[in-house]
Amino acid sequence: MKTMNYSPEHLTSNRHLFWIAAVLGVIMMAPVAWIIGLSLKDNAELLKGTEAVFAMPYTLVNYANILESSSVFGWFINSMIVAIGQTIGVLLLSSLAGYAFARLEFPFRKTLFIIVLFGLAVPEQAVIIARHQMFNWFDLHNTHIGLILPNLSSAFGVFLMTQFFRAIPKEIDEAAMLDNASTFRIFWKVLLPLTLPAQATLGIFTFLQAWNDYWWPLISATKADMYTLTIGIASSQTNFAQSEGLGFLGAQAVFASLPVVIVYIFFQRHIVTAVSGGAVK
Hints:
Helix content: 55-70%
Radius of gyration: 24 Å
Order of helices and strands: HHHHHHHHHHHHHH
Distance between the termini: 29 Å
Strand content: under 5%
CATH superfamily: MetI-like
Transmembrane segments: 16-37, 75-100, 112-132, 144-165, 186-208, 246-267
Number of domains: 1
CATH architecture: Orthogonal Bundle
Membrane topology: Multi-pass membrane protein
Family: Belongs to the binding-protein-dependent transport system permease family.
Largest sheet: none
Structural class: mainly alpha
Domain ABC transmembrane type-1: 76-267
């Protein structure tokens, strides 16, 4: 039986790592605690000085004001529509493309796959002018479709699903063919259920990216009723000290982050698996 090394040097090293991790954790959580503190303070007190964050009393009036604000809920709904729409679209298209690249034979397959991978190296800013003009021609600005479409082509998603499909033994396909299953039936009924870990990973990352996206909604959504939460909250920062106040702005930020926190809580196992590379394995 293998014995564990619990020497004093080993325990001291672990304690040092623990305290380093604890300090880094406090530093990372400090801005979050600051925003939460702002959201729980009366705006009149914050106008006198932000040091009031560290003193009682606290209040939920800023969150009550959010519930009464139709604009914030409208931005929230827009963000949900865009994030869910992008997630579903990316999962569907990436799964189909990944299956084709991994299991089917067609002309220029390897060349097309390399071209897709080049998409990982092209920044969004490099194509923003052409994209803006194209969406303007088709009158897609200030629409949910216009906010969803640009990010449906995910080079990372295609790569991830291709690698996962390649890891599945081809004997499964052959067994399904013996049962007279069509190509689409093999994909939909046999192989796709086996890729749930990769789909969960891709879905989480796509949702978080879509929810936090600022660049394209800033350009495409020019009407207030089409703002996503990121754009809506940013637009209210220009005159927050004179109108809503720091507390209300902090409450908006906390409210906007709730879906992200919920996703992390319920899908943290898949996130850890994705970061460690377990999804592809």
